[in-house]
User: Fold this.
Amino acid sequence: MNAPRPPRSGESKLVAHAEPWKRGAWSLKEIRAFWQQRAEQFKTSPQATLWEMPLRELEIAAILRYVKDGTLVLDAGCGNGYSTLAFARARRAEFHGVDYAPKMIQYARENLQHMPRAALRGRVHFFVGDVLTLGLAAATYDMAITERCLQNLPSWELQRAAIEELLRVLKPGGRLIMAECSLTGLRRLNRWRRRLGKKELTDAMPWHNLFFEDDRLLNLPALLPAIRSVHIDHYASTYMLLTRLIERGGSLFRWLPNVGRWGYFKIYVIDKRG
Assistant:
């Protein structure tokens, strides 16, 4: 999850330091406390985990391209359930949402109870859990989804361990959809901002996030035998180009055709061997 504050006048819309090694690491206890506080502050609001709603809706639409009817899906780091319920409204699949922060799950269940259709409520379940040790049976799910969840882990070693745990609970041939932020993409965007005479986005990564290096994920099939392939979906490229480089605001940008590899909001698609 990634929850930047609203910008003050004249500021970027983004939020803390672009290079993680320039600040101290954080603990998992601090992460839980942070998201507990966010849950209490925002309760059932969709902005509990991301302020920028046009980008959030674009992310949900991009993930839905991979979700099929009739499947069992794990939403790891589900927050207060906003995206999980959006997925369930759009697809006739069963969704299990898990989050590390108990208060997030409290408000996810509250959001679920407010859903008007009983049939929908029967297909969605929320519970507290740790993405590093899910405590779920192996080979259970057809798909697992993360939305800005694994980037909260303070090291690549922990991020990789979480990926392995998510692969463990996937069925053979299952798919992991990681909608996470890319440090590779952020650096590229900043290079172009410098060329255009703009300041770097030095506040793009919150203190509690470690964005992903693309090559580390693309090289995982050589390191983890369970992985068949990894590819990157640059679903937010046009939106990020226009809002972060050209800096013309507007929620309508999310409906423009997607081109190029701009920006740092990406989907990493990891397919498990059958």
About this structure: The first helix runs from residue 28 to 42. Confidence is low (pLDDT under 50) at residues 4-23. The two ends are 30 Å apart (CA to CA).
